Amino acid sequence: MSRSSGSSSRKRGRPSSKSGATNPLKPPFFKSSPFSDFGSYMTEKNRKFRDQFETDASSSSHGANLAITDGGVSGVDSQGIFKGVAIFVDGFTVPPSQELKNYMLKHGGKFVNYFSRHTVTHIICSNLPDSKRKNLRAFSHGLPVVKPDWIADSIAANTLLSWVPYQLVEYAVTETSKQLKLSAFFSEKGISRSHHQGILIQNETSLSDKCKGESTELTPSGTDNFSQENSQESKHIDTNDELKDVKSESEEDCSTSYVAGKSSDHLNRPHSTLTDPNFVENYFKYSRLHFIGTWRNRYRKRFSNFLSGTGSKNNNPNNDTENLRRIVIHIDMDCFFVSVVIRIFPDLLDKPVAVCHSNNPKGTAEISSANYPARSYGIKAGMFVRDAKARCPHLIIFPYDFSAYEEVADQFYSILHKHCKKVQAVSCDEAFLAVSLSLNDNPENIAEIIRKEIFETTRCTASAGIGENMLLARLATKSAKPNGQCFIPLDKVNEYLDKLPISALPGVGYNVEEKLRMKEVETCGQLRTISKDVLQKDLGSKMGDMLWNYCRGIDHSAVEAVQETKSIGAEVNWGVRFKDSKDSENFLMNLCKEVSLRLHGCGVQGRTITLKVKVRKKGAGEPVKYMGCGDCETISRSLTVPGAINDVDSLHRIAKQTFASFHLDVKEVRGVGLKLSRLELANPSRKGIEESRLELLFSSATRKGKQPVEQSCSTNHSREDAPSGACPSSSSAVSQGSNISELPPLSHIDLDVVRNLPPEIFLEMNGLYKGELRKILESQQQEKEYNSESVERKDCRQQDQEISTRMQRVLEPSEASCSKSNYCKSDLMPGSLSQVDFSILENLPDEVRTDILKQLPPHRVENQFSESSKSNLSLGSHSKGFEMLRVQNCLLSEFLLSNATFLTPNINPSSEEWDAIVVNSCEFMKEYIRQKIESDIEELYNCFRLLKRLSSKSSLLLELYDRTLPLLQASIGEHYGGKIASLV
Amino acid sequence: MDRKNQSPQGQTAKVVVEFLEVAINCIVFLKGFYPSRAFERRRYMNVVVNKARHPQLANYIHSSIFALLPYIQKGLVKRVVVIFYGQDQVPLEKFVFKLTIGQSYQSSVSEAELEFALRAFLVKLNVSETIAKPLPSGANWEITANFRELPSQENEGEEAKLWVPTDTKQWMQPSEITPIKSMDSNPLKLQLYMEHPSVTEQKV
């Protein structure tokens, strides 16, 4: 450490990006110097500094040379952990800049006095003024701004640590606070920066050539996007890098840059739901989980011929089980996602490699798979890239290559199916095989053959576990990995399990493990000492039973070729940010499209729709993971519809409705998932029925808009729609509406009907009218309350009618089907509640029910027929006639006259239905007679004359006439002392 | 004409009485009991009706019906019947006006509405000729009224005394009824129908 250099540094002032500020003072001293201008002066000055620095370095770095022995062929002066690092110290730092300079001298780094973005790789500073903080990029030119601790710690660790954790805190804060607007962040500058980082971390030069060689080698193949991109990207970097030492191109750099390149084209995309109209689509395009999730369908399609059970050669159809034993082999590819990607780079086999979306070394992308060398650094799946890079700076990160995965998975399964008939696919890289072997066969042989073939075909290794059942096979695989196989024979099971930690058992999660740890149980051997009862008591009967079996190596589950798909859905928990409800609606629409596509892909429809929403927990800050969901509360709600659906519109409407029912602030939404369960095969013919049903409902809905009187008819319709279900559930209404794009105008809606709708349907309708409906209803409700006093009296009669017509339905639910000729007696109100069918009553809307209950006893007692009550003649659900009678207050005779043509039902006279109609009609007629006999025999006379005339056409009317005429005559006799002439 | 009574029932009763007078005129004409020359065409409620020209006949109908007015107002009159007899004083045909005037209901139907309804009776009556049976020679006719209760003679005025108890013979068998027209309103309910002896009665 040289004191003189320290003092000289101070004299020159603190280096600053605005270094020119101090310079104007200097020129006078150099008037006679050869510098023609300020620029050449600065060049000269910098050169002088560099020379000084290098002489200093050569004199002071001997110790460092001794300490550092790894590293490749390079100049003596640039050896050391900071090779390739050029720092620029800005402002006051602890340790001071002079000390930092000395560190650089000692460890092969460079110290730059005047900032230049071409020479500097890192900016070191302890704090920043506010203006620079706000405009960081202008200040840093995209270079990392690092705390001086980085240098100190790196020296202490004697290795170049990742600078990521040492970023100036303010820097990180600024970034996260800007998180929502970061699409710009991913454009060129971001790449160039990550590019620089790549260079800095590299310390192996030998590989760079190879890597380049590979990329050029790959280019001609051309078909592979991946390699094309790779090579293009490398070229791109080469051209950009003229300022850099060519040697600094390392494998690390290479891989970084192409990942950056890869990410540049997908990161250049707007990056959240906020900015990307096709977010959902892209999300799933790049999602590994989605790949795994949808892989099964692909698999099923591809291997359906195997799955259907046409045997393969190896399978012994011999039923002679005595000479056979069944063995389960569990085959699992070793770090599938990595090994598939690097199978074409044999050199990388022993290098730490991981697969991840993004290679941004300080990014929060999660590593999805890491190979065994990488795992030895403690890198695990699910780790953020920046943490992984901190543990292993030379970790190579590859992007996904889904087409390669598909290819390898297909090869993998082809091999499995070739050797065994019964294959249970667990995932794209994992399967169970059920093999029947004769007693003297060694099961390890077949596993050996399969593994060998897999390796030869795919150049990826697989491990196999062999056991008597699926559990043992799976456990054996764990000990077999990597690239090995393990056989647990029956007599070794206990021995094997004794030492096995319980957490290794499938189904044992954190909770169970914790509970058992309280009992000081950590291995299966210890678990075996606990009785089944105790286990079941502590962990629930199912779990207890399972554990009891598992720790004894018992597993009854069988290898099954085909597993039913239970549900289909899609969920997005990353990048979900909504500004307003429009965003969320669009997003839902896209999600529904995705789900619908998946449903169509599988040829199924679902009846239960579950919407899951992740909402930012109160007080939770922005997630650590960029655009991640962070700390969330999950809300979910499901709705079962009677008819299975898979079309986008229905899904969207239900999803929208459900989403609205959460009443969420869309800004807080962090994830949305939509799932359909209760799947059934899509059947086009069913669909037709569904649609016609919808039309029925809808037509009645429009009718009800026109004519309030029809209310009971239309509600009745909706009830008919779901004849089997106890509830007229929203679904039918829902799915129905879906196919109808036009809504009746709000003014045409009969609010009484609306009010009496089941809540689900109401919600749905309300949704369709964007909440207007509820508003109107509420305002009406108030009005009604205001008026109710005065109106009550008047309404009473009207209500009576309504009630009785409804009651009519209550009493005769089947009537609708045979409505045409069915004269419903208006006052069929039972004399007491005991005669009411309560199951039907319960299904009525609350309001109606209470009305009925209120009306019941007095209605009967009064038994009073007013002029207007003749309009009660509800003729079943023959809405036209019914409506006419009510609206026009007309007489039965007129009705008969005008509807003569309708009154000829096609009902078998012997059927029960027919009897019911006749009885009902007679009851009605008798009541009508009773009602009219005092005041209007003319009407009765006309009715009967009409009946008589029509009875020639209709056996029903004849029956009716015959049955009621005696009463008429008797009544006439009673009241008028005679008989009606010409009817005798 | 007594126009002083302005209560709803009075109003209605007055209208009814007028109507009955016209209707009975029509019935008599319809039956062809008198030569048609004895009638003149008039317009009542905008319907063409026939009115007896003979003062005695006109007076008979008018006085007897208007004698009913107080009873009708009180709602005592149940029926007003025009009976046609054969020679043996056995009724051959009855035209029955069954009327009820509600006493409790205060608000009356407007006169125009009432007229409209009553006009229907007249129209129907005019075309009911076919229902009516031809009368044998030597037939007679009278206007009778059925009361719900016997009116107390003392309280009634002069006109009431015009009415005397009838000795009309009753049919032994239930009659055959042919409704002609009914109206059902408040306060007036009115039905018009014809009664004929049953077939068995005629044979006897």
What order do the helices and strands come in, and which of them pair?
The complex is a heterodimer of chains A (984) and B (204).
Chain A: H1 3-12, H2 38-60, H3 62-67, E1 86-89, H4 97-106, E2 110-111, E3 122-124, H5 130-134, H6 136-140, E4 145-146, H7 149-157, H8 169-177, H9 188-201, H10 206-218, H11 225-240, H12 251-267, H13 279-285, H14 288-302, H15 304-307, E5 324-333, H16 336-342, E6 353-355, E7 369-370, H17 372-375, H18 385-391, E8 396-398, H19 402-419, E9 422-427, E10 430-438, H20 443-458, E11 462-467, H21 470-480, E12 485-487, H22 493-498, H23 510-518, H24 524-527, H25 532-539, H26 541-550, E13 567-572, H27 581-602, E14 604-616, E15 632-645, H28 648-662, E16 669-681, H29 684-706, H30 711-721, H31 730-738, H32 751-756, H33 759-768, H34 772-811, H35 838-843, H36 846-862, H37 879-888, H38 892-898, H39 912-932, H40 937-950, H41 955-976, E17 978-980
Parallel strand pairs in A: 1-2, 1-3, 3-4, 6-8, 11-12
Antiparallel strand pairs in A: 5-10, 5-11, 6-7, 9-10, 13-16, 14-15, 14-16
Helix pairs in contact in A: 2-4, 9-12, 10-11, 10-12, 11-12, 14-19, 19-20, 25-26, 27-28, 28-31, 28-33, 29-30, 29-31, 31-33, 34-36, 38-40, 39-41, 40-41
Chain B: H1 8-31, E1 39-44, E2 47-52, H2 55-74, E3 77-85, E4 91-101, H3 111-126, E5 140-147, E6 175-184, E7 188-196, H4 199-203
Antiparallel strand pairs in B: 1-2, 3-4, 3-5, 4-7, 6-7
Helix pairs in contact in B: 1-2, 1-3
